[in-house]
Amino acid sequence: DTANVNPFTPDSLLAHNKKRCRTQFGRENLNTNSVQKYLLTDRSDEDGAWLPEDSSADSMREIHQAPKRLALHDTNISRFKREFMQVSVIGVGEFGVVFQCVNRLDGCIYAIKKSKKPVAGSSFEKRALNEVWAHAVLGKHDNVVRYYSAWAEDDHMLIQNEYCDGGSLHARIKDQCLSEAELKIFLMHVIEGLRYIHSNDLVHMDLKPENIFSTMNPVTRLTEVQQQCRDEDGMDSVYEELRKSENLVTYKIGDLGHVTSVKEPHVEEGDCRYLPKEILQEDYSNLFKADIFSLGITLYEVAGGGPLPKNGPEWHKLRNGEVPCIPTLSKDFNELIALMM
């Protein structure tokens, strides 16, 4: 049998065969010590597939890498209308349309992303597969939108993901910017999602409000969550400030279409408003730092510093250390944002 090989698969999980080998390499985890130290401070004063021990590779069914990547039209199956009931359109992007759907069998709600146009054989096919590969390797993490499955139908790509009932951060800040307490929760969640992505030697490369989503938990769970986190994150004072909210928000990183490996980077530039100048100059020597910059400038925007410039003098100032202070934030938080950028 043949199947695609996911280029983002960690070496420890690769299914090796006699004709194929890969160089082993270590990991470089995201360094978030300075961010965590800030969040933890009290601010009240101001290739082997798994085999059983008694088994051998020869006794297992052999799976071969396809001689070339399997195209989407080679994997077409009809699932969408048979398995899902479409409820509404919840998002439209450059690449696709996202539907809120109910699975007819399990009755649960999912977000299903469908490419706007047939992508099989087009320039968008690689990006579509890239998103699936990244999701599949990353698996489940509280701060990354969960992936369930993907398939091709009529040469369109469909991706079944977790439904985030809080919508995107971009939609949320249209009504009101985030307070400092909300920003701390947001930063704590997204930095954990980034740490997880980076620990797999991957970088997001398109972090921005449109690609950060949230789920809403009733405020009655706040005491439970606060108790769980009391000894772990030192965020009691922040949760106290959020008690007046109706819901406790969990932020999740989504849209992995630009994800690439730091070991063999194939960078497709994302939104220039959120990218550091080094990426636009094709300097890919520190891609982890590029994601931190994107997070920093996203913090700046959602705190009230937007809309962000696409070019011109203001664009360059934000990348040369000239980050204006946001009056609603503390001196410490303003300094943290500037350091990230």
From TrEMBL:
InterPro entries found in the cross-reference section: CC_SR_Kinase, Kinase-like_dom_sf, Prot_kinase_dom, Protein_kinase_ATP_BS
SMART domains: S_TKc
This protein's record includes keyword Nucleus: yes
Protein name: non-specific protein-tyrosine kinase
Major location category of this protein: nucleus
Enzyme class: transferase
Binding site for ATP: 114
Domain Protein kinase per the UniProt entry, residue ranges: 84-341
The keyword Cell membrane is annotated on this UniProt entry: no
UniProt KW keywords: ATP-binding, Kinase, Magnesium, Metal-binding, Nucleotide-binding, Nucleus, Transferase, Tyrosine-protein kinase
Single Gene Ontology MF annotation: metal ion binding
Pfam families per UniProt: Pkinase
Localization, UniProt: Nucleus
Known EC number: 2.7.10.2
One Gene Ontology CC term in the entry: cytoplasm
SUPFAM superfamilies given in the database record: Protein kinase-like (PK-like)
